[in-house]
Amino acid sequence: MGVIFKQSLFNIIFTYLGFALGAINTLFLYPNFMSDEYYGLIGYLISVSNILAPLLNAGVQNAMVKFYSSYEEGEQQHKFNFMMFILPILMMMPIGLLMYVMYDPIASFLSRENPIIANYAWIVFVIAASMAYFEVFYAWTKVQLQSVKGNFMKEVVHRAIIMILLFALYLDYIGIENFIYLVVLMYFTRMLLMGAVAFHIKKPSFKIGIPDNFKTVFNYSLLIIVAGSIAIILLDIDKFMLGQYVDIKNVAYYNVAVFIAIVIAVPSRAMQQITTPITAKLLNANDMEDLESLYKRSSLNLYIVSGIIFLLIVLNINQLYKLLPVEYSSAIMVVFLISLAKLMDNLIGINNAIIFNSKYYKTVLTFGVFLAILTVVLNALFIPVWGMNGAGLASLMAFFIYNATKIVFVNKKFGIQPFTIKTVKTTLLFAGIGFIFFFWDFNFHPIINIVIKSGVIVVVCLLGILKLNLSSDITYLWKKYIPFAK
Known about the structure:
Elements: H1 2-33, H2 36-57, H3 60-67, H4 75-101, H5 103-110, H6 122-143, H7 148-170, H8 176-201, H9 214-245, H10 249-261, H11 266-284, H12 288-321, H13 332-347, H14 351-356, H15 362-414, H16 421-437, H17 446-467, H18 472-481
C-alpha cells in the first residue's frame, strides 16, 4: 500500500502541475505571445494528430496493460512483448506510405478553408506517430508498476517545454516557423526519452512470433482502436471541423474556451478512481440496492461539486476574458455551452462504470459510435451557420442525447436511475444563485473581482447546501473537518 499511495500521490501532484502549466500556456502565453492565426494553426495540427494517434497506436497501450500480467515470464510473454512493440510499426507503415503518396490531395483537403495549413500538413503524421509510441512506452512502465516517471513525462514535460518555447518566441530568440518545428521535435524527443525511461525500468525480452492467444489480444486491440478513436474524436473533432469551415483564428478562440470549461470534468475523473472498482464489486455481487444508492449519491455529489465550479466559471467569465486579448471574447458563449455539457456528464454519476463493468460493456462502444457520428453531423450542420457557437451547440446537443440514452439504458437493464428530489432542489438553488450573481461585479481589477466574487459564491453555495441538507456526504465532511461546525 505504501508504494501504491506514494505513486498515486505523485501522479496527482504531476497531473495538477501539468494542468496549471497548461492553463498558463493556453489562457495567457499563447494568446499574448503568438498571433491568433498561428495559435489556431498549432491547435488544429495537434487536434488532428490526436485523432490519428489511436489508429497508429493499434490499441497497444490498453492491450499491454490488460494482458501482460496474464503471462508468466517465458516464451509466450516474450512473443507478446514483440507483438505489442511491433504492431504500431505495422500500422504506421501503410498509413505513412498512403499519406506520402497522397500528400497533395490530403494537404489540399485539410487546407481547403485555411491555406496556411498546407505547408504543415506533414506535421500531423510525425506528431501522431510520436504520441502513439509514447503511449506504448508509457504502458510498459505501467505494467512494471512504475508509472510516476511516465506520468511526469505525459503531464508536465511537454507543457513546460512549450512554455519555454513561448517565452523564446516572445523574446525573438526564435521565429514562428522555428517554434512549430521545435514543437514537433519536442513530441519526438519526448517519445525517445519515454522509451529510455521505460527500458531503464525493465528492458523487455523479445522473441519473434505471436503468442498462442494472439486472436484474443488482436480482437481486443481492434476494439480499443475504435473506442480510443471515438474518445479522441469527441474531444477534438470540433476543432478539426472548425478548421474546415471557418478562419483558423477561431480554433484559437475555441481552444481557450474549451480549456476553461473542461475544469468541470476534474471532479468526475477524481471520483472515478474510487467508484469504478466499487461499482464492479457491487455488480459482481448483484447488490442492486447498494448499487442504486451509490448511483444516486455519486450523481448528486458530482452535480453539487461540478455545479459550484460551473457557477464560478459562468459568473466570472466576463472578468476572466478581460485578462485576454479582446478577440477571444467572441467565444464566451462557447464556454457556457461546453460547461453545460460537462455539467451534464457529471450529473449521470457512475453510469459509465455501471455499463462498462457489466455484461453490457460492448454497449459503451455502440453508444460511442453513435455519439461520434452524431457529433460530426451536428458540427457539419451548425458550424457553417453559427461558427464557434455552432460547434459548442453541437457538442452540447450530442452529449445531452448521449447521456440521456445511457440513463434510459441503465434504467431499462438494471431498474435504477440517478435522480432524487434533492437533484431538483440543487438545480433550483444553483439557478437562484446564478440569477442573483450574474449581473453583480466589483469595480476592481478583474483578478480581484474574480477572487472576491468567487469567495462569496462558494460561501452562499455551501450555506445553501448545508441548510437544505442536499448531501449527507458533504454535511458529514463539513461537521468532521470544520471545528466550529460540530
